Amino acid sequence: MRKNILKAPFVKEMCMTTANMYRIGWDERNGGNVSYLLDEKEVSKYLNLNKVIRRIPTGFEAKELIGKIFIVTGRGKYFKNVEYSPETNLGIVRIANDGTTAELLWGFEGGGVFTSEFPAHMMSHIARLKVDPENRVVIHTHPTHTLAMNFIHDLDEKKFTHTLWEMCTECIAVFPEGVGVLPWMLCGTNSIGEATANKMKDFRVVVWGMHGVYGAGKDLDETFGLIETVEKAAQIYVLTCNRPRINTIKDEQMQELAEYFKVNYRKDFLNL
Ligand code: 2HA
Ligand code: ZN
Predict the structure, then answer these.
(1) Residues with a CB atom less than 6 Å from ligand 1
(2) Is the same domain home to 194 and 252?
(3) Given 90, 115, 140, which residue is the final one in a domain?
(4) Residue 111 sits in a domain of what CATH number?
(5) Is 177 a catalytic residue?
(6) In terms of Cα–Cα distance, which of 9, 7, 15, 5 is closest to 82?
């Protein structure tokens, strides 16, 4: 007897995460998308893995991901609705042996397909798995203050990271590698996917200039928490940027923090 997939922890977690992100205002309309690499054994408790519902071409080759199974949000779907109808707003897909097709194993009921940002997600998974074999999650979202900051702050990686690190004491410990920044680019394309994956070699957070962010991590909680920390720092920046700065966290103090927490930080992003 197979277990009920709607009760699977990974489906519940996807529902909880998307609902949370919708309620904090990051994912208006169909904004944002999530992909989560699943354990085959775990999925087989819920689904017959030999039963492919549909085959969906991906439009790119992902040889490194052949046989891997992901739960992913659907194209044009609203985060607001995921918890009420996971089977239409989410899908479980496996990358087929050709590396260019996704086999639908569950979900996307009513003819849906995976997010338009599937290339950026899969390419980011490939890049992160090379750096960290434990990486399982990629989240794309439109966090309000991080986005606001994009319009009033230099988009240089060092300057952008430095400002974020300055805004909350724990930032340098949470994202010691800093944040990668891409200029404005057309979204939904293989090119933005390749550019994102290239940044993901060095960063777990990549800002898409004037669009949103990508975050990667080992589970949904950690990845959400990472983006949340960037967003909190951006919020403090936006709240304080047009007032005289009387106090600041100094570069020496950031260095002290990084050394205390024993993190491998981007020393060249500090001005010491
Ligand atoms: O899928 O956020 O970047 C909706 C988006 C596209
Ligand atoms: Zn987006």
Answers:
(1) 30-33, 115-117, 140, 187
(2) yes
(3) 115
(4) 3.40.225.10
(5) no
(6) 15
Active-site annotation holder among 117, 166, 228, 231: 117
Residue 24 has a CB neighbour count (10 Å cut-off) of 14
Nearest-atom index, ligand 1, CA of 32: 2
Q: Enter the pTM of the model.
A: 0.98
Kindly report the protein residue whose alpha carbon is nearest to atom 3 of ligand 1: 187
Q: Which ligand is nearest to the CA of 188?
A: 1
Please enumerate in sequence order all residues whose Cβ is within 8 A of that of 213, keeping only pairs 6 or more positions apart, or say none.
140, 141, 142, 143, 146, 179, 205, 206, 207, 227, 230
Q: What pLDDT is stored for residue 85 in this prediction?
A: 98
Identify which of 18, 22, 28, 30 to mutate to test ligand 1's pocket (most ligand atoms within 8 A of the CB).
30
Same domain, residue pair 143 and 253: yes
Identify the domain containing residue 185 by its residue range: 117-272
Whether residue 193 is found in the same domain as residue 126? yes
pLDDT digits (tens, 9 = 90+) for 215-272: 999 999 999 999 999 999 999 999 999 999 999 999 999 999 999 999 999 999 999 9
